[in-house]
Amino acid sequence: MYDNMWDDGNSLGPKEVHSYLTRMMYNRRNKFNPLWNSFILGGVKNGQKYLGMVRMIGVNFEDNHVATGFGNHLARPILRDEWHENLSFEDGVKLLEKCMRVLLYRDRSAVNKLQVCCFLTSFIMISFSPSEYMDFVSKFPITHNF
């Protein structure tokens, strides 16, 4: 996305970029040539946090927690039940691990690693080394019944 007016004092925020992605994905869908992607977009502008999601056909929404793919069906109900506004970082990581555990149980071809990223208004913190392998994986052997 290119901003033609660099010095006009305005900049595109997360809400505007989310709207642009929604229109772009919907336009590609109408041409019967969709991009097979889902996007999660988060950001902060003027002190207001924003988190939104766009699917491959232009379906979009914004919420306090989002997920794509299989996680939208299995992890979001857990997030709806257990997420609250004053959730600490450690409790949030535990909640994400619980969601990923459920997803890993349902899809055994998934990777059992989790990388956490925390967005704050002043900085972004990313754990560059993925967290330890989730110990529960070794308790359930992978079996292939073909």
Globally, the shape reads globular
Number of helices: 3
Order of neighbouring strands in the sheet with most strands? 1-2-3
Average pLDDT confidence is: 81
Largest sheet: 3 strands, antiparallel
N- to C-terminal distance: 46 Å
Helix content: 25-40%
| Strand percentage | 15-25%
Class of secondary structure makeup: alpha+beta
Low-confidence stretches at least 5 residues in length (pLDDT < 50)? 136-146
Query: What string, H for helix and E for strand, traces the elements in order?
Result: HEEEHHEE
Radius of gyration: 18 Å
Notes on the protein architecture:
The chain is of the alpha+beta class and 146 residues long. The chain has a domain at 1-63. Helices cover 33% and strands 16% of the residues. It is built from 3 helices and 5 strands, in the order αβββααββ. The chain has helices at 14-30, 70-82, 89-106; strands at residues 39-45, 48-54, 60-62, 117-119, 124-126. The strands form 2 sheets. A 3-stranded antiparallel sheet has the order 1-2-3, with helices on one face. It has a two-stranded antiparallel sheet with strand order 4-5. A hairpin with a 5-residue loop joins strand 2 and strand 3. The radius of gyration is 18 Å and the shape is globular. The N and C termini lie far apart (46 Å). The model is unreliable at 136-146 (pLDDT under 50).
